What we know:
By secondary structure, the chain is mainly beta. It has one domain (3-191). It has 2 helices and 15 strands. Strands 1, 4, 8, 9, 10, 11, 12 and 13 form an 8-stranded mixed β-sheet that branches. A 3-stranded antiparallel β-sheet has the order 5-6-7, covered by helices on one side. Strands 2-3 form a two-stranded antiparallel sheet. β2 (14-22) and β3 form a beta hairpin. The chain starts with a strand and ends with a strand.
Amino acid sequence: xxxxxxxxxxxxxxxxxxxxxxxxxxxxxxxxxxxxxxxxxxxxxxxxxxxxxxxxxxxxxxxxxxxxxxxxxxxxxxxxxxxxxxxxxxxxxxxxxxxxxxxxxxxxxxxxxxxxxxxxxxxxxxxxxxxxxxxxxxxxxxxxxxxxxxxxxxxxxxxxxxxxxxxxxxxxxxxxxxxxxxxxxxxxxxxx
Length: 192
């Protein structure tokens, strides 16, 4: 089933996740809040990328990756710095990142934190910003696929604090291992 967004956008129904400057004005990408896939809980899972190199990913308890951080090496060290802005630790501040083909956006709205992610190399394809809901948590904007999720703010803040506490203890946890090498399979096996 495909749903195309209606043109009536009343306040509070959509969140502006991206502004794309164009020669003739700016193209805005607003994603409907009710199209975000809702998750009751979230954890920061650590993936051992090398002998002393950990990467972090925001996942639900079933191991579905809601937000990956593919270019943030040594997450355990980064999370020990109180002033780090490399991860979206504080949902009150809108956070966005674009690094080597990866784009992400995080922002709190009311009691939820919204998470968007896509391939940054595809953003130039967005023209008229026609939205289509592909499935819960997946929205295309002019054919560009966005992951679109929301989690309770309390769970989000607890997940990052638990991650920081685990890193301070010298043992990043929980551990996550990618189930598949297929980049389309965004699931991890969680342990510990």
